[in-house]
Amino acid sequence: MEKLMDFDEWLANYKPQDPEYFAVFDPQTGEVKSVGPKHAFENEKNKILIDREIAEAIIEGNIKIGSCVIDPTANSLEIAEVKNIHKIDDVLHRIQDVAYAADIEKPDLYISYDANQKTLTVELSEELEGTKKLPEKFQPVKPKKVVWDGDTEMDFLITEYNDPNVLFEMISVKINELKGSSVTFENIDYSRFSVYTRRIFKNCVIEYK
């Protein structure tokens, strides 16, 4: 005859299972739609199991759900880096010529000027989901997921060489336009010029061709 365990003994040894949490996401964009316990999403197809601490932090509002994305290649949830442009300094900075910027091996923002075509092209590094490839020694590159909070427009002042007080013209581009593509401006026809901008990215360079 099978011996029954004493209830008090069972209760003393009982360890409840940790609840499982899932994130429901958009399969096209990786955007996280909802986070909650397993039973809440029984009928959902696009969901993945996520860490309990992260799930609870999202539910409690300590992590914004809008800053969360699903990496389809790793099948995991990532917390995107959040940047608030309103906290960036308001001082104009000259973008360094790549020929004199040996200390910047991994530029965040890359501008190239083609004097023959009279075009100026703006790119983000592939590390920031842009099109500018990093040197071979930094490959393979795992893109950072970045959520831009607030105004995402960057202004570039094309000025007299080393003199921001003599403005030739100003061009603007939105950061979201640089995700996965470059932006090219035409009819930029100056023999010698500098480019100034407010510091949104730490490492910016320009190449004159």
Key features of this structure:
mainly beta, 2 domains
Q: How widely separated are the two ends? A: 90 Å
How many structurally independent domains?
2
Mean pLDDT across all residues, rounded? 84
Largest sheet: 5 strands, mixed
Got a strand count? Answer: 16
Task: Describe this protein's structure.
There is one protein chain. With 209 residues, the protein is mainly beta. The protein has 2 domains: 7-79, no CATH class; 85-208, no CATH class. The chain has 2 helices and 16 strands. It has a 5-stranded mixed beta sheet, with no helix packed on it. The longest helix has 8 residues, at 52-59. It is elongated and about 90 Å long.
Task: Briefly characterize the structure.
7% of the residues lie in helices and 39% in strands.
Topology overview:
Blueprint: H1 7-13, E1 21-25, E2 32-37, E3 47-50, H2 52-59, E4 68-71, E5 76-79, E6 81-84, E7 92-94, E8 96-97, E9 109-114, E10 119-124, E11 146-149, E12 153-160, E13 163-174, E14 183-185, E15 194-198, E16 204-208
Parallel strand pairs: 6-11, 8-16, 9-16
Antiparallel strand pairs: 1-2, 1-3, 4-5, 7-15, 9-10, 10-14, 12-13, 12-15
